[in-house]
Structures are given as C-alpha cells and as structure tokens.
Amino acid sequence: MYKYAVVGKGMIGSAAARYLSQWSDEVVLIGPDEPEGDWSKHDGVFAAHYDQGRITRCLDGSLAWALWATRSIAAYPEIEEKSGITFHHRSGGIQVGYDSTDPNSALNKAERNALHLGTSYVKMTSDAYCKENPEFWFDPGLMVLHETGESGYINPRSLVAAQVKICEQQGADIVRETVVELDSSGNGVTLTTDGGQTIQAKQVLVAAGAWTEFLTGADLGLQPNPRTIVMAKINAAEAERLKHMPTIIWYEGSNNPDIEGIYVLPPIVYPDGNTYIKLGGSLLEMTYPQSAAELNKWFHTDGSEVEARALEYELRRIIPELDAESIHVNTCVVNKLKEGNVPIIKPIVDGKVMVATAGLGAAAKSSNEIGRLAALQLHKMS
Ligand SMILES: Cc1cc2nc3c(=O)[nH]c(=O)nc-3n(C[C@H](O)[C@H](O)[C@H](O)COP(=O)(O)OP(=O)(O)OC[C@H]3O[C@@H](n4cnc5c(N)ncnc54)[C@H](O)[C@@H]3O)c2cc1C
C-alpha cells in the first residue's frame, strides 16, 4: 500500500506529487497522458493544460492569486534545473482596463497588490501604449499596466512534464491510466483504473481538474466552464513583426456583447511546427456540462461558434494589421466554483481523501504553489 496517491497527472496533481515524493518514498501519481491524434475519437477524460502557452504574471487584483503566482514563479528555475526542461518565457505582459478612481477596479486592485509584493510594472494610458506599440490597438481612454520581470508565459505541457520527471527522479511511481473508481470504505483507499489495476494508498489527493466532482461524487459546488479558443496561424514574417508582443489581458472596456475577460498569447511555435497567436475569453452565456460524459463530449466538438466569432473579431481589433494565414478553433475547460474565485483544497473523507481543484483560468502559472499547499495539507493529515 502506498502512503500517498495523487489522482490527476495535470498541473496541480503533478506539483503536489513532486512535493509528496520529496517527503516520502511511497508515492504514486495516477493519470492518463494526453490523447494522441483526433480528439473526437477519444472517449476518456481530457485536461485544461493541453496547450503550449499559459500566461504567467504576478499582477493580480486578488492578493491570494498574486501571492500564489509570485511563489510559483520563484520556483520555476528550480523545476527547470532539476528536470532539464524549459517552460518559462519572459515576454512581459500587459493588462488593460478602466482608468478609474474606484479603488476596487481591476487595475487599481492589481496595482495595490503589486506594491505589497514588489511586482515591477509600468503604468500608462492606452493611447500612450498604442503610440509606442503601433502594432496593437485598444480603445482610447483606458489604462495599461505593463508587467516586466518574470512575467510572460509558460508552456503548461512542459511544466507538467518537468514535474513528472522530478517525481520519477524522487522515486514516485507513475501510472498512466484513468481512475474509474475510488473506494474509501476499507483500510486506506482503493483506486481502480481503466487498465484494470487496483492501487491502494493510505491517503489520496484527487486533483482531476474539471472531472474531480464527477469522479469523487462529492458535492464540491464546482461548475466546469467549457471554453473555446481561437488560434491564428501566422507566417515567419508576421512572427518577426510581432516578436516583442507581450501577453495581453483585456479586463474591461472591450464591450463585446458575447465575451469578456479577453486574453492573448504572443506568437508561439506549436508541435506541428507552425506559429500561432492564441486567444480566449469567457462566453457570457454558456451551457455547463452536467456529467463526465457531457464534458468529454465537449472536447469532441469544434467549440462555440459564437465565442469563436467574437474572439476572432477581438483579435483583429487588437492587432489591426494581423496577417493570419488561417484561423483554428479548439476546446478547453476551466474548472471553477459556482460561488467564488479561488481553488479548493480540502478533505472530503476525513483523514483519507482530499481534493485540490477549481483552478479557474488562472492556476497554470500558480499550479506549483497550489500543489504545494495541497501536498502540505495531505502530509499534515497523516
Ligand atoms: C483555454 C484556457 C486558457 C487558460 N489560460 C490560462 C493562463 O493564461 N494562465 C493560467 O495561469 N491559467 C490558465 N488556464 C487555467 C489552467 O490551465 C488551469 O487552471 C489548470 O490547468 C488547472 O490545473 P488542474 O491540475 O486543476 O487541472 P488539469 O490541468 O486539467 O489536470 C487535471 C488532470 O486530471 C486528469 N484526470 C481527470 N480525470 C481523471 C481520472 N478519473 N483519473 C486520473 N486522472 C484524471 C486529467 O487527465 C488531467 O491531466 C487556462 C485554461 C484554459 C482552459
């Protein structure tokens, strides 16, 4: 019997398993690899991190999120060094919002937290920003915070690969299968996988992302949000023209009738060898999957047409001269609480089973710290 099992080889689970395997020789990390080929032919679970770019930044309107990001970013060099896998790219990042005297506006809160945590940034009007950076456009009269230093983006697939590699170096077992049953009625916890394995552990951390509630059956108040992303394929000349592009989060002032919270990643080379600019946001009116089967099915679709259209429209506004060879649409999922914008790390079966999930669209960059906090709590439970 293992001392600790972590279910979910994703961003939070792999981080938690790295810490647990630092403290114990009896750790197993269980979760499937990314499905290969056509997603519509895959019947099992997916993940929120099957991509090449996730924004990383310390500037945040929530002090908790700003702190988790700051601590996680501080751990990136150690993870890169121990694993030999590079995942952090310092492109800088801008956040755009209202120029408001309201102390609770998105940018004013972010600035306040930046002062607390010593985050380096430059503040300017959108007019001044666009004059200095004519490749980009934002409505006049808005405010821009430009974070420098360590901000930019991470490759989430590479970060997970790095965490898993260190887990292996530290002696953890990796089981690349999906857990189909979790039974905590006996001595310890018994996990059954889709490959027919039975794995026993004294304690289990479930970090199965948007599938956590469906797997555990616990009422956690979660609501997986299906997300559509748009990727503009660009050629080498366009990538060169936009090579100094920062990451972009346009919080307020875009006034799109269908989406909010728009974010854009700079040009990134994908595994197919092409360079893409990716953007996403949040659809104002969405339908939520109610079961694992419904959620898996979402990944078999081409996403939401309304969201894709609105995203492409915004991308062409932000980069008016964009020379895109083609536009591609993909699906993803953000796991969040119905009420509240923080992750949950809590026991669901006393002394035996904990969950760590609800990373929203924000936990990739902070997954190391969220995983560390979950690992600490599980360790203390023993
Ligand atoms: C389109 C999009 C853009 C985003 N952009 C950003 C960004 O710019 N910056 C940022 O910080 N965050 C961003 N995020 C959020 C970030 O990706 C998530 O918060 C993060 O991936 C959550 O980590 P997780 O470990 O909870 O879930 P995941 O990364 O989804 O990992 C969960 C894992 O559990 C596994 N699993 C599920 N069910 C089972 C089972 N039954 N048995 C075993 N394993 C199972 C899955 O295979 C998966 O690997 C974005 C998310 C999306 C969807």
What labels would you give this structure?
alpha+beta, nine-stranded mixed beta sheet, eight-stranded mixed beta sheet, 382 residues, FAD/NAD(P)-binding domain, 10 helices, binds flavin-adenine dinucleotide
Task: Describe the overall structure.
The protein is of the alpha+beta class and 382 residues long. It has a domain at 1-89 and 153-221 and 339-382: FAD/NAD(P)-binding domain (3-Layer(bba) Sandwich). The protein is 31% helix and 30% strand. It is built from ten helices and 20 strands. It has helices spanning 11-23, 63-83, 106-117, 126-132, 156-169, 212-216, 236-241, 292-298, 305-318, 363-381; strands at residues 2-7, 27-30, 54-56, 88-89, 93-98, 121-125, 142-147, 152-154, 173-175, 179-183, 189-193, 198-206, 222-234, 247-250, 259-264, 268-269, 275-283, 324-337, 344-349, 353-357. The strands form three sheets. Strands 5, 6, 7, 13, 14, 15, 16, 17 and 18 form a nine-stranded mixed β-sheet that branches. Helix 1 packs parallel to helix 5 (156-169). The longest helix is centred in the first third of the chain and has 21 residues, at 63-83. The chain is globular, with a radius of gyration of 21 Å. It starts with a strand and ends with a helix. The model has no long low-confidence stretch (mean pLDDT 96).
